[in-house]
Amino acid sequence: MDPLRSWINQKDVEERSRLTAVFRFFFTIGLALLLSMFFDSPKLGGFSALGAFMALLSDTKETLDSRLQGLVITFFGVIGAAILGLFLKGMPYGVWLILGIACFGESLLSFATRFWWLWGKYCLVFLMVALFNFAPDKDAFIGYAIGFSLAAVVIVLDHYYWKIEQLGKRPLEELRAIEGGVHNSVEFAMIAALTLVVSLWIAKEIKLPEPAWVGVTIIYLLNTDVAMGFKRMIARLIGTVAGYLFVVWLFPYAHDHLTLGLLIVFSSLGMPYFVGKNYAIMSFFITVYILFVLDWLLLAYGGDGRLLQWRLYDTFFGAACASVALSAMWVLYRLRPEQAKKQ
């Protein structure tokens, strides 16, 4: 086979791989929202959509058994982290200690660990959300269980289709284009933990509306590759602002769950397609998806469906804090070049 035809065939496989991943998100999240309408429970629908989205993103294994085991481990990990957050709310000093330890441990995991790298971030996110933003209730737990269960069904179907079609890399493999490293140093983990704890404390002191989102921004921007970290920061800010403005433009037309449901489903499709291709566009679709799902839940809990401006404020503050941490890493690499070579 000549090189040109081989390249064309490879591109065709990559495109079909992405489209298959898009269909998984479309089917799973669409079904989650339809079930909520069937049971007349918008709360379950919103949490099911979030759970399904998380479950599909955590699908990093190869064999069917390991993929399903990964879903179970992820589900109980994030639920356990949420319960721990609820328990720690009454311990003002214990909160910061546990957060620091959790972030330190998570930051030692490099992308080379794949599943555990993502699992650590998910658990840390749920711990922060439970501590600073939202106390999970029964609907949240049931909704996430439904979302993960739907994802499991789709993964079983997807496993055999992917095997038959012999499609290429799954979406998480594409993240290798924007993540890297085989080892995270203790120094990096210490800087990350200190940055997270101090940033969250400042966010609470200055009364930012959703402090946990500051932490989410930080843990996803920090990278042992300093240059890559700054590139991702710029791309994330571009994607976040663009997504926010897009939601501002569409929001006046989304007054009901049917319209929001359609917007949620279609905005979920961009992430699996653009992961590894364009970090800014991927961030755009994640921002739009999260904002619309949270607006759905606001309506379900009797809110007025107001636009969530905090997503923009907290992202900028989190990015500023992450830039300080990346600058500290750059100084460390200048003073100790051997550390940079180990990453």
Describe the structure.
It is built from 15 helices and no strands. Helix content is 78%, strand content 0%. The two termini are 38 Å apart. By secondary structure, it is mainly α. The chain has one domain.
Strand pairing plus helix content: what structural class?
mainly alpha
Order of helices and strands: HHHHHHHHHHHHHHH
Largest sheet report: none
Arithmetic mean pLDDT: 78
Low-confidence segments, ≥5 residues, pLDDT <50?
Answer: none
Helix run count: 15
Radius of gyration: 20 Å
Distance between the termini: 38 Å
In helices, the fraction of residues equals over 70%
Please indicate the count of domains. Answer: 1
Determine the oligomeric state from the structure.
single chain
Shape: globular
Compute the number of strand runs: 0
Strand residue percentage: under 5%
Please specify the SSE layout and strand pairing.
Elements: H1 3-38, H2 42-57, H3 64-88, H4 92-107, H5 115-132, H6 138-165, H7 171-174, H8 186-205, H9 211-221, H10 226-250, H11 257-267, H12 270-274, H13 279-300, H14 310-335, H15 337-342
Q: How would you summarize this macromolecular structure in one to three sentences?
A:
This protein is mainly alpha-helical.
